[in-house]
Amino acid sequence: MKAHTNTIHGIKQYRVEKEDVLLSFSEDGYIKIWSCDYLTEITKIDHEQPVRSASVISNDGFKYIVAGSYIKDFPVAIYSFSGSFLNQFKVKGYTFNVDGYNDEVTGKTFVFASTFQPYQLHVFDFESTEKLYTIDTI
């Protein structure tokens, strides 16, 4: 099995539609989703830049992948679970980490992106991609 051709920056486990999957992302620019049953590749996404961070988030019952690159001012991308590019969040600085949160009370989904130079935490509304907050961390 050949996972990636360069440094893997992260591997995360998720449960999607009653199946355990792994999400891996790498310096080689690819995001991959693997079945945990047989360690077979389900989805391969070409992010076109080294992937520093990625996460699976839920919104309206669907699964999405958000991904950030450690390249100055490169947007955080949203992909469908099947790998299609859907939208992006604009950030300033170098994206260090991305993640999401689904508020079950309000039904809203939020995306978080931390950046370096400037040192900030950004909070976005998933559906509109509108930046809601920017918090200086230093």
Task: Describe this structure in a few short sentences.
The chain is mainly β and 138 residues long. It has strands spanning 8-16, 19-26, 30-35, 40-46, 53-59, 62-68, 76-80, 85-89, 94-102, 109-116, 120-125, 131-136. It is globular and about 45 Å long.
Keywords for this entry:
138 residues, mainly beta, four-stranded antiparallel sheet, 60% strand, globular
What report would you give on this structure?
The protein is globular and about 45 Å long. The protein has no helices and 12 strands. It has a 4-stranded antiparallel β-sheet, with no helix packed on it. A 4-stranded antiparallel β-sheet has the order 5-6-7-8, with no helix packed on it. A 4-stranded antiparallel β-sheet has the order 9-10-11-12, with no helix packed on it. It has 138 residues and is mainly beta. Strand 11 (120-125) and strand 12 (131-136) form a beta hairpin. The chain has strands at residues 8-16, 19-26, 30-35, 40-46, 53-59, 62-68, 76-80, 85-89, 94-102, 109-116, 120-125, 131-136.
How are the SSEs ordered, and which strands pair?
Blueprint: E1 8-16, E2 19-26, E3 30-35, E4 40-46, E5 53-59, E6 62-68, E7 76-80, E8 85-89, E9 94-102, E10 109-116, E11 120-125, E12 131-136
Antiparallel strand pairs: 1-2, 2-3, 3-4, 5-6, 6-7, 7-8, 9-10, 10-11, 11-12
Class from helix and strand fractions: mainly beta
**Segments where pLDDT lies below 50 for 5+ residues?**
none
Helix content: under 10%
Number of helices: 0
